[in-house]
Design a protein that fits this description.
Blueprint lengths: L2 H15 L7 H8 L3 H7 L3 H21 L8 H14 L1 H17 L3 H23 L2 H4 L5 H25 L9 H12 L2
Helix pairs in contact: 1-2, 1-4, 2-3, 4-6, 4-7, 5-10, 6-9, 7-9
């Protein structure tokens, strides 16, 4: 792994334990056993490190969570797989989500907020693209807005569940039979 990636990964580890304000370049340098000036060979500022760290966390979550979608399976099977993946990999999701949650709620910088907004929009577009590739949906005329609303519904359900995990180490989805949620979402599409 190159130094730039090591710096980003170390920043992510700090963000998992603390927050943006405590993600100091001096701490990153100390953890990597490098001079603090070395960091500035790769990054212009702490803000730039933070933005790249958030992008990496977001991409990791998206790839791990969404890449299990199989366009040959039915939408219902894919939704069940997504729910299972979410439940099985609690620790991975919640540790990474915690970084995103803190970045959305604690950082008050316009450039970072703009970047977070772009990351959110990119994520929604990526999820939409993956879901609409499911063979069952390619033959149906389902309104784009309806699919986007369902994506936002799922995102919101995940968001609430992640927040509950953050404060209580309990997963909201575990309190329900996820198949009820899948059936409900499926019924919204009227397939």
């Amino acid at each position: 792994m190159n130094k730039k990636d090591l710096i980003i990964d170390t920043a992510i580890e700090i963000l998992k334990e603390s927050n943006y304000h405590n993600m100091k370049t001096s701490i990153i340098a100390k953890k990597l056993n490098i001079a603090e000036g070395t960091i500035y060979i790769y990054f212009n500022s702490k803000k730039e490190i933070f933005i790249e760290a958030i992008e990496k966390v977001s991409n990791n979550l998206l790839n791990f969570f969404i890449d299990i979608i199989d366009k040959e399976r039915s939408l219902k099977e894919n939704l069940e797989n997504l729910a299972n993946n979410f439940l099985i990999n609690n620790e991975f999701f919640f540790n990474n989500y915690n970084v995103l949650y803190k970045s959305f709620s604690e950082v008050d910088d316009d450039k970072i907020k703009e970047k977070l907004s772009l990351i959110f929009d990119k994520s929604i577009s990526y999820i939409y693209e993956k879901i609409t590739q499911i063979k069952e949906l390619t033959n149906k005329k389902i309104e784009k807005e309806k699919i986007k609303l369902i994506i936002l519904f799922l995102w919101g359900l995940g968001d609430i569940s992640w927040k509950k995990w953050t404060i209580s180490n309990k997963n909201l989805i575990e309190e329900f039979d996820y198949r009820i949620i899948v059936d409900f979402i499926y019924s919204l599409l009227e397939i």
